[in-house]
Write a structure and sequence with these properties.
Length: about 150
């Protein structure tokens, strides 16, 4: 398989971008995933559960999209991309009112043979730090990039 994802860019990090966690965005996300938990909408409910404010659902960082696409994915054929697995690691919950600085890191590429042919698995991490520089979360995602001729 011809290497199409530039492995020379492994370890590259995007420019930082800032995300302000807003109450309305958290509530809409909770609605979209069908989670009625009041800790995602009501400060008193969140406080009663031991949180210092309204928290975001655990998968909320999927919405923290960089304003500019990273160099390592910019030229990939979108018809050949599939979502892979995702994982989240938290040092503390994401809270309404947080102002987080995020960066995307190109972690690596693995090659696999699947039932439908060869593919590359591109791993990226989005890290978010708070206003004092403490890491809040790491969102790790794997993107499947299928070989030519498998997208049809």
């Amino acid at each position: 398989m011809t290497v199409e994802i530039d492995r020379g860019l492994i370890g590259s990090v995007s420019a930082p971008y800032v995300v302000e966690v807003e109450k309305g965005a958290v509530a809409k996300f909770a609605d979209a995933i069908g989670d009625p938990n009041p800790v995602f909408r009501d400060a008193a409910a969140a406080n009663a559960c031991g949180f210092s404010g309204i928290i975001a659902p655990p998968t909320f960082p999927v919405s923290f999209i960089a304003p500019e696409e990273p160099a390592w994915t910019r030229d990939l054929d979108r018809r050949r991309i599939l979502a892979g697995e995702q994982s989240f690691f938290y040092r503390r919950p994401v809270l309404v009112g947080d102002v987080l600085t995020c960066r995307v890191t190109f972690v690596g590429v693995d090659e696999k043979q699947g039932r439908s042919g060869k593919m590359q698995l591109l791993t990226q991490e989005v890290r978010g730090v708070d206003a004092v520089g403490d890491e809040v979360f790491v969102h790790r995602r794997v993107t499947v990039y299928r070989a030519m001729g498998q997208s049809d």
